[in-house]
């Protein structure tokens, strides 16, 4: 049974046009089309629904970034030119997340410039702001909070980082704020008072993720740097936590719509189902599932019929090219059925979550025309 027939149809235009919806978050497993979907929806919101829209992209492919006029990471939204907004009066602004600059900005907001300069120079800060697992997710949330606070846009469309697991986006901020919360750091400080050696082994164990940096700063400098880092962050804990909590509340609000993006593959659909469960637990509003890159045969001929026709044609000494086409069609028809079965697993688990399918395009989506096509496909499947 085709999953979209069973699930209610997701009406993306209704979401994009709704003035009550101020944030759309596109999430899902790695490589399923989150960035593409986010950019396509933002473009559609501006062109078709006249909304003043900003899209926060994360690591967009170079060509896509270029087509949105994003040639450098400058961490602030730029207006996208050359789109068709004359009739609608909408606007599209786009930006790429610069994780480190966002972290730097947060530090600057919570401390004076001299202290900030000290923090920036600290190797532990440098490691954490550029490599800590979860920093990208946390900074995406931080940036969303900032854009929302500016109140300049009708609609903010958020892409999420290319995590292995879709859940990382929800978990990372908590993990990071736990870290910043000081429990772990207080533990680190305790052995520091007792002497260098235990401190060293403890640090090496706890900061496994920073191992390279730890090696680089080995020696007397280590303690000084780490204590400096801890002391500096200590003064900012409250601010960090408060901001994370604020953004979390925004994500739970009615103005937010989560869209789960999945490819019609077992892993991606399983990920999507986990994520849907988590959103429900966190009381975050799931608007629907976008099943991206599905294959649809253009003619109504199932795999068996197609293969039978090919065999018959061979018997009759028919045209070889036609036989090939029939066989290729049979393979496509079989894949379409497989994809529907995979997608049906999600719908069985979440029968009330609206869904929509987007056909796999013949080529990658890397320009405004391509985004427009995807936007139209999501809206009129
Ligand atoms: N419907 C589609 N048809 C054809 N190609 C697509 C479609 N959707 C996305 N793509 C292509 O698939 C690739 C991955 O898409 P995208 O970058 O949007 O995925 P992502 O979920 O953001 O990945 P990551 O998790 O790495 O951030 C891109 O090259 C994009 O152009
Ligand atoms: Mg992406």
TrEMBL record:
GO terms for molecular function: ATP binding; ATP hydrolysis activity. Residues 22-294 form the ArsA/GET3 Anion-transporting ATPase-like domain. It comes from the Bacteria. SUPFAM superfamilies: P-loop containing nucleoside triphosphate hydrolases. This is Anion-transporting ATPase, ArsA/GET3 family.
């Amino acid at each position: 049974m085709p999953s979209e027939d069973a699930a209610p149809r997701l009406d993306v235009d209704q979401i994009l046009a709704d003035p009550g919806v101020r944030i759309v978050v596109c999430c899902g497993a790695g490589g399923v089309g989150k960035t593409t979907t986010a950019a396509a929806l933002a473009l559609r919101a501006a062109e078709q629904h006249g909304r003043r829209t900003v899209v926060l992209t994360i690591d967009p492919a170079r060509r896509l970034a270029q087509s949105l006029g994003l040639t450098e990471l400058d961490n602030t939204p730029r207006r996208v030119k050359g789109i068709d907004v004359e009739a609608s009066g909408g606007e599209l602004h786009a930006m790429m997340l610069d994780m480190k600059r966002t972290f730097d900005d947060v530090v600057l907001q919570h401390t004076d410039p001299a202290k900030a300069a000290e923090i920036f120079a600290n190797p532990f800060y440098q490691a954490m702001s550029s490599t800590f697992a979860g920093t990208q997710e946390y900074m995406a949330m931080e940036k969303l909070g900032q854009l929302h606070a500016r109140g300049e846009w009708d609609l903010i469309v958020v892409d999420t980082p290319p995590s292995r697991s879709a859940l990382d986006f929800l978990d990372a901020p908590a993990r990071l704020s736990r870290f910043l919360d000081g429990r772990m750091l207080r533990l680190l400080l305790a052995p520091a008072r007792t002497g260098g050696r235990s401190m060293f082994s403890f640090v090496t164990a706890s900061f496994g993720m920073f191992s390279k940096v730890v090696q680089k700063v080995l020696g007397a400098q280590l303690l000084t740097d780490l204590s400096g880092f801890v002391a500096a962050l200590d003064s900012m804990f409250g601010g960090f936590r408060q901001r994370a909590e604020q953004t979390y509340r925004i994500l739970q609000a009615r103005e937010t719509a989560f869209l789960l993006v999945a490819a019609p593959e077992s892993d991606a659909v399983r990920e999507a189902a986990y994520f849907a469960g988590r959103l429900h637990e966190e009381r975050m509003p799931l608007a629907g599932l976008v099943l991206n890159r599905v294959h649809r045969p253009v003619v109504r001929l199932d795999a068996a019929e197609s293969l039978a026709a090919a065999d018959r044609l061979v018997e009759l000494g028919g045209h070889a090219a036609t036989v090939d086409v029939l066989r290729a069609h049979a393979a496509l028809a079989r894949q379409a059925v497989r994809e529907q079965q995979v997608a049906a697993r999600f719908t069985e688990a979440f029968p009330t979550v609206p869904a929509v399918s987007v056909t796999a395009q013949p080529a990658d989506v890397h320009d405004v025309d391509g985004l427009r096509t995807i936007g139209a496909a999501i809206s009129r499947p």
